[in-house]
Design a protein that fits this description.
The protein is α/β, with parallel strands linked by helices. The chain has one domain. It contains 14 helices and eight strands.
Length: 305
């Protein structure tokens, strides 16, 4: 699995905090033509329990319409809604992120990069009006996250239009209980616990792939919108530049924990709508594969085109 899809699949969960350093982006003069997406969804069920599995994109363009058809029907039938993180983003979560992200004192981050990577690092920060004096004193994982998230804003992707926000708002409006699989603090810990060498590798690969980031997210969005998990999985596995340790931390270990959660929840009656990043429901080591190892079959829900 290539580095870039790993970050796009997992790191965008932190997008609300990127606003702290994001350069102002001019609003579009007029919305583009509405796009009706038909993303894939799965269901796991027994005699008295139904759990829907829906793969989200954390940032979307405002013109994308996806919360309709079978997805909306499944949400409406569910008594409980499960998200990666159910807590509201706010000043507290940003403060927590920055407390973990900053590395005061010591060698500046740019001094830990090669000449070529340092030049790319400075250029990327300048293009998004991100202060070098600040980012030169953050940990490499934070720089990699921000340099993945910030460009997407200029491409028209918006966290306020993201699937997670819409699902959370709809659940609150309907009075449905919200459950978080993780906390913001736990998610931050996934990155912060990486050895610095691994963090630097992540940052270096991010810098190399920035020029094609827009194309990559566009292709992934097309596969998601078309409800084509096989194509999405192929995109996420098209590169051999893989790091098993990163993949284990950010994807497969979490998928296993979430499959365990589903297995335990299947012992209770009711209907649940569970929404996690689409990358967790595609390819080898997916939540569905983990469920199969635990004796549960996740079947794709037929959609109405």
């Amino acid at each position: 699995m290539t580095w870039k899809p790993i970050l796009l699949a997992c790191a965008l969960a932190f997008a609300p905090n990127a606003a702290t350093y994001a350069a102002p982006v001019a609003a579009a003069s007029a919305p583009e033509q509405v796009i009706h997406a038909r993303p894939a969804m799965w269901v796991v069920k027994d005699a008295d329990t139904t759990i829907y599995l829906f793969g989200t994109i954390h940032l979307l363009k405002p013109e994308v319409r996806w919360f309709e058809g079978p997805v909306r029907e499944a949400f409406d039938k569910s008594g409980t809604v499960v998200l990666e993180v159910a807590e509201e983003p706010g000043a507290g979560s940003r403060q927590t992120m920055m407390a973990r992200a900053f590395q005061p004192g010591g060698l500046p981050l740019s001094n830990k990069l090669s000449d070529e990577a340092r030049e790319a690092f400075y250029a990327a920060l300048k293009s998004h009006a991100a202060p070098v004096e600040v980012f030169d004193h953050v940990k490499p994982w934070f720089a990699a996250l921000m340099l993945t998230i910030l460009p997407l804003k200029s491409y028209g992707y918006d966290v306020e239009s993201g699937a997670d926000r819409a699902i959370q708002a709809a659940a609150k409006a309907a009075g449905k209980p919200l459950v978080g699989l993780e906390t913001s603090e736990e998610q931050l810990g996934l990155f912060d616990s990486m050895p610095e060498g691994l963090q630097l590798s992540l940052l270096n690969e991010t810098l190399k792939e920035l020029p094609t980031l827009g194309e990559t997210i566009g292709r992934m969005m097309d596969a998601w919108s078309a409800g084509d998990p096989e194509k999405l999985a192929a995109l996420m596995n098209e590169s051999v530049d893989s790091n098993p340790e990163v993949e284990k931390i950010l994807l497969t270990d979490r998928n296993a924990r979430w499959a365990d959660w589903i297995k335990a929840r299947m012992a209770q009656p009711g209907t649940v709508f569970m929404a996690v990043g689409a990358g967790h429901l595609a390819g080898k080591g997916s939540v569905q594969e983990m469920l199969a190892q635990r004796g549960f079959k996740a079947s794709m829900v037929k959609r109405a085109d």
